[in-house]
Amino acid sequence: MESWKPYVDYIVEQAQKLLAIDSPSGYGREVTDYLLEEFARLGISAEKTRKGGVMADLGGEDKLDGIMLEAHCDTLGGMVAQIKENGRLKLTNIGGMQAANAEAENVRIITKADGIYEGTCQLTDASVHVNGDYAKTERSWDTMEVVIDEPVTSAEEVRKLGIMPGDYVCFDPRTRVTASGYIKSRFLDDKLSAAILLGYARYVKEEKILLKRRVYEHFTIFEEVGHGGSAPVPEGVTEAWSVDMGCVGKGLQCTEHQVSICAKDSGGPYHYDVVCRMIQLAKENKIDFAVDIYPHYGSDVEATLRAGHDIRHGLIGPGVYASHGYERSHRDGVENTFRLIQAYIG
Question: How distant, in Å, are the alpha carbons of 55, 68, 153, 213 from that of 63?
């Protein structure tokens, strides 16, 4: 096929749609419904898992040697831990959300039954003209607070809005796609790769690909808290990959224009035969790739292994810079990741 552009265009479009849906770990209803609707539109069988994720079946001949691709649609975020007496909110983080990275970000507070309110995450006493220790203050969840965009000055007034501890606080992703092909947003980890799996599913359907192996796509909603990929695994699956963000940073080779093949992360090495086959196919198909070791990283597929499943495992993804912050990737990284999946599976 000469050009993958239509599928890359679709992937970028789907990434933008997924990023616009709030889905911090455990709050996956809207993003799950969207995925089910999109798979139905594509004419691909998909169902909601008990945990609230989505499992799609792309078909394929050999059900006894199936492969499952995993991407997560949950993100970092916050939760109301305390309503302060001055009417502001103390947060607890969801996943690895960093307080220093949340400062001055717009948020949405999702109540249990009383709608959604907007606010801003700020340092307490955030005015530089008032607070002489502004620059010296360590940013932590004890020194940060949410200022609600409602006329409230007491805890009682906040409670009357229906806000309570346990309500999710979702951070604005600020998604942008530049004319030069860069994709910038919070939560590209891992909605960009979730979009890549949608793109691969569309490719298989539209090009009428006859898959030799049964192929499943599992979209999880608890990866950021460690157990997204622990279940389920369809019968006959012998191999599973996490398609997640590829790390870009000091000491690593990968750039935002490449697909990253992970040889080892903090959970240990990935299956040697799978990694070698990925590298071989990338070379044969002139796919721009890098092989790296991720020093501080865990993946869905490692949760799958820890749950006791006897499978081979791998991890790939488009290069993403500034993980768990305001992240950036590129269309080239999307295309190279898509092409490696296509070369490996069909």
Answer: 15, 11, 61, 7
